[in-house]
C-alpha cells in the first residue's frame, strides 16, 4: 500500500473485509495496531487472546475526526480544548463512554473507553471509507518490550491469527501517549510517542 497515496480500490477491499468481521494489523502514526469492526465480539476476543488481555484493558476507538470522536465519549469544554490542540496525533485519551459504545468495550468499573485520531494517511483513508471508528489495540505481543514495525514480520508471525496485514512501509516503534481525562484532570497513564508537556 502506497504510504502517501493509498489505492482507493485496495482501501475499499480492506474496509469491506472489516465489515465482514475481519481482524487486521494496520499502521498508525505511532506503531502497528490490531483493528476490527466496532461491534465485533469475535474481533475483541481474538485481540484479547493475541495480547493476553484481561477485561480491565482499555480498548481504543480510532476515529477519523473530532466530530466522530464526540459521538462515542463525553468531553467537557476544558478537556475539549486540550484534546483538540493535540489531534490528530500520537495520543490516546481515556474518557467516559456514551451509550454509542458497546458495553463489552467499556472498562467494567469506570465505563470509560480510549479514543484517538491518528495522523496517518493510510489509516485516515481507511476510516473515511469505513464511516465508523476502528476498534483497536496496540500490536504489542505478550512478554515483548517493543511492537513489531514491519508488515512482512507481522504476517510471518501472526498470519494464522489475523485475516490481513496492511503494509505501507515502516512505521514507528513507540505506542501512543495515553492521557486519562475520566477524572476531569489530565493523568498521564503511559508516556509514548506524543509530547506530554502540555498535560503536565
Secondary structure category: alpha/beta
CATH fold label: DHBP synthase
Number of self-contained structural domains: 1
Strand order of the largest sheet: 7-1-2-6-3-5-4-8-9
Structure summary, number of beta strands: 9
**For the residues shown, what is the average pLDDT?**
92
Q: Helix coverage percent of residues?
A: 25-40%
- Mind summarizing the main beta sheet? 9 strands, mixed
Q: Provide a count of the helices.
A: 6
Tell the overall outline. Answer: globular
Strand content: 15-25%
* CATH class category: Alpha Beta
CATH architecture level-2 label? Alpha-Beta Complex
Summary of the model, kept short:
With 200 residues, the protein is an alpha/beta fold. It is 28% helix and 18% strand. A 9-stranded mixed beta sheet has the order 7-1-2-6-3-5-4-8-9, with helices on both faces.
List the main descriptive attributes of the protein structure presented here.
DHBP synthase; 200 residues; single chain; alpha/beta; 9-stranded mixed β-sheet
